[in-house]
Q: What sequence folds into this?
């Protein structure tokens, strides 16, 4: 049950971060929309809040690490792919309690669900290279 609820939290966080990037709305406003729409029923609401708080907070550090792994500026990525990659990168770099394989597989599943036809391949390649780099960022 815990993995299912965290999976749903990641899916909602990807949608919320997409909305944040596209609209520029504060994540606190976006969060209330997800909670009032019952989109987070059966999910780990605390983890959803954690992701939509921490990913924007650490966006610069995440993008700095990702920059070397992506051939084009991150701002040119589809916002859906960008949100998914940021969540996966955050989990790989800042959440040692989450195995890299879990972070990558969750991102691939979200790319299948929300991304363009073959975006999962791109997401997998970027996060796999990131996970293969030395160590995790410091908290």
A:
């Amino acid at each position: 049950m815990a993995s299912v609820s965290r999976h749903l939290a990641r899916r909602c966080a990807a949608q919320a971060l997409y909305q944040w990037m596209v609209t520029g709305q504060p994540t606190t406003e976006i969060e209330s929309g997800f909670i009032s729409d019952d989109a987070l029923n059966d999910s780990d609401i605390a983890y959803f809040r954690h992701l939509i708080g921490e990913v924007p907070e650490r966006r610069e550090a995440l993008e700095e690490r990702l920059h070397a792994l992506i051939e084009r500026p991150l701002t040119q990525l589809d916002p859906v792919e960008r949100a998914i990659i940021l969540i996966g990168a955050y989990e790989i770099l800042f959440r040692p309690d989450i195995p890299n394989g879990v972070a990558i597989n969750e991102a691939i599943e979200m790319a299948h669900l929300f991304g363009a036809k073959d975006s999962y391949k791109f997401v997998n390649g970027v996060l796999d290279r990131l996970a293969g780099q030395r160590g995790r960022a410091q908290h």
Observations:
- The helical segments are 2-23, 27-36, 45-57, 59-67, 79-94, 100-114, 119-132.
